[in-house]
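Letters spell out the chain; the tokens describe the backbone. To illustrate:

===
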Amino acid sequence: MPRDRGHEHYERAFETWLRDRKIPYLSVEQLRRSSDREGPIKNFDFLVHCGSRHYIVDVKGRRFPQTSRGRETWWENWIHYGDLEGLFAWEKHFGEGYEGLLVYCYWLQLPACDESVTRTASVDGRDYLIVAIEAKRFAENCRKRSAKWQALSIPAKTFTSLIRPIDRFFTPI
């Protein structure tokens, strides 16, 4: 049974998806930040092994669509600078064969959002669409969203051309 992560249902959705497919993983508790010689490093959420591929995963949870001030936005994908810095630092520490991956768990808010949007997972009565993008690819295509909040994002149209369904990265052993 996936561990209880309180209100972090997005991570539970991804963890359940991995467990249902018997894909080996290690989940990381976020109690303290790790550090190296250069200082604190943001922890990742999961280390996933799938055959010869090893992913350092940071899960990002978003509503789909996101509603703010009466306006709907689709494909929200912002992250903090530290998210990328952390993934790249862990890639360096783990070495060759390990790749940073941003996994987006979108909590579907409409019964039928769009014909192209299909449910990937259902957990605790919530439906999710789970997609991913390599950290390196995100970094190559992002732009500053907010200097104040140290946030980066990719325009929605570009983002949808770069993301892949989660099963393209993880194939059951």
Summary: The helical segments are 9-20, 81-94, 135-141, 156-162. DSSP finds four helices and 14 strands in the chain. Residues 9-168 form a domain with the Trna Endonuclease; Chain: A, domain 1 fold (CATH 3.40.1350.10). The two ends are 20 Å apart (CA to CA).
